[in-house]
Amino acid sequence: MSAGPCRGDREDNADVSGLSSVVQTGYSSRYSFLRLDRMNGDGKVRLTLDDVRELVTRDEPDVEITSLEEEPGSGRGDNYTSMLYRVRAKGRKHSLEGGEGWLDYERAIIYKILPESKKRREAFKSELLFRNEVAFYKHVWPALNRLQSAGRRVFGGVPRIYAARADLIAMEDLRVRGFKMADRRKGLEVESLKLVLKALAGFHALSLTLRESRPEEFVKLMNPAHDQGIQEVLFRRDNEDWYRQYYRVAANNAIRMVSDALPSHMDFRREEVMTKLQAFLNEDVFFRTMSELVSAQGALSVVCHGDCWTNNILFRDEPSSDAEIERRDAEMRTIRGGAGVGHITDQHVRQPRGTGFVREECGDQRGEAQRGSAAASRRRVRPAHD
């Protein structure tokens, strides 16, 4: 439930890089270390043709990249904490037959870098957000993905990650495969929500499986003091003054919207509802309450996306199968440890179904993750002669 100033007001043309949520992508989740010290003419760190050649050929050594085109990765004002760019790499690849022939090759990559302005980086906590995202791609996701066997994958994982470092993250651009956002003004309908819940169930099941099967590793990855661990980046007590002006405006907007939208048949409870809402959003207690909520740890604490709402989910309709969905990478920087909850739909969808809806649609993803982990472990200890 993150609504901090890092999010901005993204429109439908926003970044569509993402995290696979339902359908297996079949792509490697390996990340690359890129020694990127070059700057372009305006002093900004950018991917060059040589950089992209290095990144692509690490995963695909039979590819030759010959040209590179760049464009902005999101609309003006869409991203405050980072700068996004898209590049389209073109070249050729050896034919599958193993002969001397070549096939045309094209790869779309989206990458983000820290803002060049130090004031902007400090204002939006860019370094901390980047650090969290890199920790996920380099350490947390590989640990979760190792639990899955080829035949038992409960979560499709991450698109191909080309680089993950303190000031640059590069990955596959999913826009070219037809993924797009749902209408954020309408929210998600039931069928779409079922897919999202199933995806989240698989993601959280991997966390629980890691917690049970490798508790020391889980504790390390959830430890903000460890160089491989994730940490809360928004609702931290040391952010209270920094965040105050934002949530003061947001709270006033929320109070006004609830007051305007409260139906007439609820007039007899209007005073009660508004009093409770105003008490919760009181700026002297709201931030501390949220900090306590996101920091609480229990038996079912998992790795959470941190900002799972409609704009951070991608859909692609397939005529021969269920709709595919992917989760955008853009807010993986807000990943946190905590209870597995999110804000992805509205009351008219949730209320008639209650918590049973979540149980019904998630299925036994945790059990499937545990079976996949056992199968993966057997595969790793199999004798060499098998």
TrEMBL record:
Residues 345-386 are annotated as: Disordered. Residues 358-369 have a biased composition (Basic and acidic residues). Residues 377-386 have a biased composition (Basic residues). Signal peptide: none annotated. It comes from the Eukaryota. SUPFAM superfamilies: Protein kinase-like (PK-like) (SSF56112). Residues 169-343 form the CHK kinase-like domain. Gene3D superfamilies: 3.90.1200.10. Pfam families: EcKL. This is Uncharacterized protein LOC106749712 isoform X2. It comes from Dinoponera quadriceps (South American ant).
